[in-house]
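re: ur question from earlier - yeah i can do the single chain one, its not a big deal. heres the input i used so u can compare w yours
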Amino acid sequence: MKKLLLISVLIIFVFVGCNKDYVYVSTCVYKNQTDESICFTWHSHYARRSLTEDTIFIIPPQGMHELKFRREGACPPPFCGDYMGPFYDDSIVISNGEKQFIHKFYPPDPETNNLYQEETYKLVKERKRHRTYEYIFTDDDFVNAEPIEPSDGSVSE
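and the output i got, formated as tokens:
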């Protein structure tokens, strides 16, 4: 009986001890090196499942904002995480109040620094279970951006 109990306890320890699911985190740091505030809006079906920050935020001139994504098993690339990946119609809208540009997850545009693509970011820190990426907004980001149409406040039907 003692042998059976000892074997049972050992089996439990073996199966419980070997199954470690570490949580990995990727931090995306967005810096604004323009003279205008930047509004960052992420339209996503799955944003709140893995993201630890808001999906709409303002970055003041010379300011910064961080987004953290978490996932079990490996460091997630930007805008991916547990139970979440970019959906085909997800988009990121970046505006400075006068102009805006839109990054779409699909189809990816190889001509832009698409914020969904990991190679767009600079990897600034890498530890065992945490990576920090950085993207710096400059005036060059807005050179080919679309002008924002002024709103007259009326609602069209």
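The two ends are 80 Å apart (CA to CA). not sure if urs matches, ping me
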